[in-house]
Design brief:
Pathway: Purine metabolism; IMP biosynthesis via de novo pathway; N(2)-formyl-N(1)-(5-phospho-D-ribosyl)glycinamide from N(1)-(5-phospho-D-ribosyl)glycinamide (10-formyl THF route): step 1/1. The protein is an alpha/beta fold. Helix content is 39%, strand content 21%. It has a single domain (2-191), classed as Formyl transferase, N-terminal domain (Rossmann fold).
């Protein structure tokens, strides 16, 4: 199973996947490339250092969002991926991208969707006062953090949690869950071939 990973930041989720590949936990997964929406991201640096092909489709290099989206679609397609994985990719893609990679664009989110979608899932969960939150891996669609859920993992909110401590504990579970989902998807594709 070939996958392109998209990042916007440090790439800690991506690093967990790269480590799992290196350790033989994901023998059916091929990291085709790692791309970013801006230059100098930690995720692209991590991937390049590990010997993976990387690319940047810089959002600021385009006059409008549609042009940027189209170029991102073309760049991802050039690697012939079975899946595209948003691994901390902080850009909303348009309908062209969603339609091109329908049920093949995977996203992670630090909340138990459909609760607390958007950029502040951890903060929103704490503010609402829930006792349990978690993380979700889902197929992204045209909505914000909507689309069919693939897997979820609950994380209890502790009395002394801050947004930062809770988010760190969620990230640990999010990495494990993403690796499990990628393992399941790649094994089921291999079995079907």
């Amino acid at each position: 199973m070939r996958a392109v990973f998209l990042v916007s930041g440090s790439g800690s989720n991506l690093q967990a996947v790269l480590d799992a590949v290196a350790e033989g936990q994901l023998p059916q997964l091929e990291v085709a490339a790692v791309g970013a929406d801006k230059h100098d991201t930690g995720g692209v640096a991590r991937a390049a250092e590990a010997g993976y092909e990387t690319f940047v489709v810089n959002f600021k290099d385009f006059d409008d969002r549609a042009e940027w989206n189209h170029e991102l679609v073309q760049k991802c397609l050039s690697y012939n991926p079975d899946f595209v994985v948003s691994s901390g990719f902080m850009r909303i893609v348009n309908e062209e991208f969603i339609n091109t990679f329908e049920r093949r664009y995977i996203n992670t989110h630090p909340a138990l969707l459909p609760a607390f979608p958007g950029a502040h899932g951890v903060r929103d969960a704490m503010k609402y006062g829930v006792k349990v939150t978690g993380c979700t891996v889902h197929y992204a669609d045209a909505g914000v953090d909507t689309g069919p859920i693939i897997a979820q993992q609950a994380v209890a909110i502790l009395d002394d949690d801050t947004e930062e401590t809770l988010h760190e504990r969620i990230k640990i579970e999010e990495r494990k869950l993403l690796i499990k989902v990628l393992k399941d998807l790649s094994e089921s594709r291999a079995a079907a071939s």
